[in-house]
DNA sequence: TTAATATATACGTTGACATGTATATACGTT
DNA sequence: AACGTATATACATGTCAACGTATATATTAA
């Protein structure tokens, strides 16, 4: 599990505007001006955020005349998805412990 | 889906030291001095990071004499887990499109 | 070539946050 | 009570990153 790549992804999408860009791009590819319109931030800021996301490997670009169409890269999100899956032990273990506790109580009642 | 809560969680665990604290606490509860030893940062810094994580609802504390034992809260990680699951469409759709493409090619070959 | 549209970059300013040092608080032991 | 250990907080400092404004680059159209 490549934690430093995940940290970069986390750091990148933790910024509120970029988080919103991710939410938007999840619905499908969008041009810069699409994003400017959808979220309420200036064009240079959007370009800058997209640059940062691109550097982090979270998006890729396609040219269409003067427009740049941005899409989400799947891999980094898959990685984080897998990482968060590994947390499931956190709550499953608790349920197991609860089960153990309940069994123990039952046993005590029967004695 | 509570995006503002998720953003807070992301922002909190994106910081490298706190990310490492999460990785450590995933293995089980730890005292402050445990964490100080495991990661290589000063005690006040660890306390401060734990304070921030606590404010964000990511950890809870139990007292044991002078020690404070920190554990991960399950819920915020469950939320992010669910959110990242929603990205699966991202790559599944692509596979679907690939399937479509392959079917089309086959059809063309048969004509 | 000139103009128009779409996007990217440069730069100065500002605010937020992480760090280190010092100190306060909490709890236990003698 | 006095001391030691464990943890939390206060404060000054430095760094980084986001923002706004201005401008550069790219692409198409006239």
Automatic annotation (TrEMBL), chains A, B:
<keyword id="KW-0238">DNA-binding</keyword>
<dbReference type="InterPro" id="IPR011991">
    <property type="entry name" value="ArsR-like_HTH"/>
</dbReference>
<keyword id="KW-0805">Transcription regulation</keyword>
<dbReference type="InterPro" id="IPR036388">
    <property type="entry name" value="WH-like_DNA-bd_sf"/>
</dbReference>
<dbReference type="InterPro" id="IPR036390">
    <property type="entry name" value="WH_DNA-bd_sf"/>
</dbReference>
<dbReference type="Pfam" id="PF01022">
    <property type="entry name" value="HTH_5"/>
</dbReference>
<dbReference type="InterPro" id="IPR001845">
    <property type="entry name" value="HTH_ArsR_DNA-bd_dom"/>
</dbReference>
<protein>
    <submittedName>
        <fullName>ArsR/SmtB family transcription factor</fullName>
    </submittedName>
</protein>
<feature type="domain" description="HTH arsR-type">
    <location>
        <begin position="1"/>
        <end position="92"/>
    </location>
</feature>
<keyword id="KW-0804">Transcription</keyword>
<dbReference type="InterPro" id="IPR051081">
    <property type="entry name" value="HTH_MetalResp_TranReg"/>
</dbReference>
């Amino acid at each position: 599990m490549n934690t430093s790549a995940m940290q970069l992804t986390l750091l990148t999408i933790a910024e509120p505007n970029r988080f919103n860009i991710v939410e938007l791009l999840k619905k499908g590819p969008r041009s810069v001006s699409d994003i400017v319109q959808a979220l309420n931030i200036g064009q240079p800021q959007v370009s800058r955020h997209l640059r940062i996301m691109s550097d982090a490997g979270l998006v890729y670009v396609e040219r269409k005349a003067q427009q740049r169409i941005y899409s989400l890269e799947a891999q980094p999100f898959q990685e984080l998805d897998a990482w968060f899956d590994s947390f499931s032990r956190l709550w499953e273990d608790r349920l197991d412990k609860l089960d153990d506790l309940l069994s123990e109580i039952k046993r005590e009642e029967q004695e």
